[in-house]
Amino acid sequence: MLKRRKVIVKKKIDYEALLKKYMRFLLVFTISLFIVSRFINPKLAIFLFVTTAFNAMLQKFILKTGVPADFELSTFATIIATMGFGLKMGLLVAILSKFIAMVATAYMIADHFFMMFTYIMAAILTSIFISISPGIDPLTLGLTIVIMNNALMFFMSAKIMRLDITSNLSYTLTNFFFNLVVFSVFIRGIHGLIIG
Length: 196
Prior knowledge:
mainly alpha
């Protein structure tokens, strides 16, 4: 008996359109970076753009795959910005890093505003901790705030949003372990690069 051979049709990629799309993005990115760097520190501007772009990609990945996870760089970006440039810049990064990701993915739910609240809390807590202990280790500070924010988000998800325990644990634990890796691997290097 003869078996039918499967015919795989490959989708033709329009490289010219793809190049134009990325060239437009690069142009908008460069102009935006130039404008923003006139008002805030250029290092902070680049850091904000990079973390926001990655945040949007992580959000798109979660939406596309449907994975019950909370991968984000807003906490990391907020803590670095607050340590290096003060509370006002930390609050700016806390709000923009999440808001721009929501706009970029065209996905906005109430949960995102609770998350934004935890990033604002991260900026405030960072400011408090560095005023109490100016030489605090960035990794210790970051992980302390991640634990506090995850506890706060778990509580808000359970009590206010009535999220079931399985989903709540899934989001909380994936966020904790993702941030644990990000902070453990990158915090000291980025801290030294951005803050000096």
